[in-house]
Amino acid sequence: MKDKKALKTNLIFAGVLLAVALVLFAVLQLRPTGGTAVLTYGEDGQTMEIPLNKNARYDVDTGIYTIHLEVKDGAIAFVDSPCPDHLCEGYGWLSRQDDWAACLPAKANVVVMSEGG
User: Fold this and answer.
1) Is beta strand 46-51 parallel, antiparallel or unpaired with respect to 35-41?
2) At a CB cut-off of 8 Å and minimum separation 6, what does 66 contact?
3) Exposed e or buried b per residue across 48-86, where buried means at least 16 C-beta atoms within 10 angstroms of its C-beta
4) What CDD domains does the annotation carry (predicted)?
5) What distance in Å separates the CA atoms of residue 51 and residue 65, rounded to the nearest whole number?
6) Is the domain of 10 the same as that of 54?
7) In DSSP terms, which residues pair with 36 in a beta bridge?
8) How far is the C-alpha of 113 from the C-alpha of 60, rounded, in Å?
């Protein structure tokens, strides 16, 4: 009798865990992704709007250096920086509204204007 009760309890527990896992999976898969970042660069402050919902690499000539930005999984980062100090790479991946990074030698900065999630 104890074995049947334990089995029933284990099956109910496993079912609840499976249901929770399915709900979490659905929430993570169906949430909006992306957002928008704005790159400002060069002597005259040109701007470029960058969507964060599509993985891509952007190579932008600022007139001083060609900077490299990578968009991946709803975030953006300076990568493979040609500037002498590489500090811009240290900002890491930006994904939240108002996150920002700058490459001062290249006269460039990027700001996340809106989040996707």
Assistant:
1) antiparallel
2) 59, 60, 82
3) eebebeeeeebebebebbebbbebeebbbbbeebebeee
4) DUF1312
5) 22
6) no
7) 51, 114
8) 19
DSSP 8-state assignment for residue 92: -
- Which candidate, 114, 87, 85, places its Cα nearest to that of 98? 114
Q: Which of 92, 64, 65 is nearest to 78 (CA)?
A: 92
pLDDT tens figures, 29-86: 554 555 999 999 999 999 999 999 999 999 999 999 999 999 999 999 999 989 899 9
- Give the CATH number of the domain where residue 83 resides: 2.60.320.10
- What pLDDT does residue 75 have? 95
Residues 62 and 85 in one domain: yes
